[in-house]
Specification:
Shape: globular
Number of domains: 2
Oligomer: single chain
Number of strands: 13
Strand content: 25-35%
Largest sheet: 5 strands, mixed
Number of helices: 10
Bound molecules: acetyl coenzyme *A
Distance between the termini: 21 Å
Length: 325
């Protein structure tokens, strides 16, 4: 049976100019490189300068993905930007990226599912493409979490970083089997009862300020591996595939211990796991497209490879997508 698939035809990413090492954070809060590396696997993160923002990073990533695809903005009719740190409350960062690309047609909007935002955005774009409403989408994850961190709180400020990544999805015909290229399934979940474990303590409708990120790290950790297993196993079941079929596992990059424990529980071999948390820290919705771009550009991910992406985030939200590259 012929079906429409959303096929990845390009990817790109962008990072702030400045990398901040763990040692540099020792001057800000009572912490140590050894503690951060042992608990999280993070060695450095990038932090945006005054003239860098979610918009500038997201636009640079979108341009890089378009160039990688050999396309221009004229070829695109949908932009979705996953972010929890937009430049402004409104207009959306996506419409400003649209303007930055010189694009005056199609539709652009932001999507907010915190660290699961990129997977939610891939699922959303996939549904628009498979419905026939749109033909080619740029899906972006872009964040400047440095702007919502309490830099005096050592339990959170050492964990996060800034950056952006993007992919271009194109509607193409498939056979309706797991051998097709494109997004084969997406699995989205949320449970708002967990709000207080991970949230920002401000917003336009309450404090009228941006607020700061607050997290009960141990509580998030307690739920993390179970949520990852839930959506990854659901994606395997929906497509009749197994961990052995997988070429690459590209998880949300929050914490290497969560990634290792998840892969172990799922029976995914360590050599299939793409890790960038050591270099980027947790960049929330940007972490998966940054990791995808790194693994494509260093020659690991190739067309035809079966790639599982998954994330967990504030809400809680959690999600996976199985993509044949
Ligand atoms: N440096 C040194 N010591 C620290 C630091 C730090 N940066 N932060 C906390 N500590 C101390 C604590 O104060 C505590 O000290 P105490 O025993 O004297 O009270 C001790 O280290 C242990 O603290 P825990 O919170 O129990 O440390 P844990 O081993 O749980 O590690 C961590 C903390 C890394 C946050 C872990 O819980 C974790 O990774 N949780 C998941 C977080 C996560 O993935 N969040 C992202 C979700 S995605 C999103 O949507 C944003």
């Amino acid at each position: 049976m012929t079906v429409i698939r959303s096929v990845v035809v390009g990817c790109g990413s962008a990072l702030p100019r400045k990398a901040v090492t763990n040692a540099e954070l020792e001057a800000l809060v009572e912490t140590s490189d050894a503690w951060i590396v042992q608990r999280t696997g993070i060695r450095q993160r990038y932090v945006a300068a005054e003239d860098e923002s979610t918009l500038t990073l997201g636009l640079a990533a979108a341009k890089a993905a378009l160039a990688d695809a050999g396309l221009t903005a004229d070829d695109i009719d949908l932009i979705i930007c996953a972010t929890s740190t937009p430049d402004n409350t409104f207009p959306s960062t996506a419409t400003q990226i649209q303007a930055g690309l010189g694009m005056h047609h199609g539709a652009a909007f932001d999507l907010q599912a915190v660290c699961s935002g990129f997977v939610y955005a891939v699922a959303t774009a996939d549904n628009f493409l498979r419905s026939g409403a749109h033909k080619r989408a740029i899906v972006i994850g872009a964040e400047t979490f440095s702007r919502i961190l309490d830099w005096s709180d050592r339990t959170t400020c050492v964990l996060f970083g800034d950056g952006a990544g993007a992919i271009v999805l194109e509607a193409a015909e498939g056979e309706g089997t797991s051998a097709d290229r494109g997004v084969l399934t997406s699995q989205l979940r949320s449970d708002g009862r967990h709000r207080d474990k991970l949230y920002v303590d401000g917003g336009p409708g309450t404090t009228k300020t941006t607020g700061h990120l607050r997290m009960e790290g141990r509580e998030v950790y307690r739920f993390a591996v179970g949520m990852v297993a839930d959506v990854v196993e659901a994606a395997f079941a929906a497509t009749g595939t197994t961990p052995e079929d997988l070429k690459w596992f590209v998880p949300h990059q929050a914490n290497k211990r969560i990634i290792d424990a998840s892969a172990d529980k799922l029976g995914i071999a360590p050599e299939k796991v793409v890790i960038t948390v050591d270099r980027h820290g947790n960049t929330s919705a940007a972490s998966i497209p940054l990791a995808l771009d790194a693994a494509v550009k260093d020659g690991r991910i190739k067309p035809g490879d079966l790639v599982m992406i998954e994330a967990i985030g504030g809400g809680f939200t959690w999600a996976s997508a199985l993509i044949r590259w």
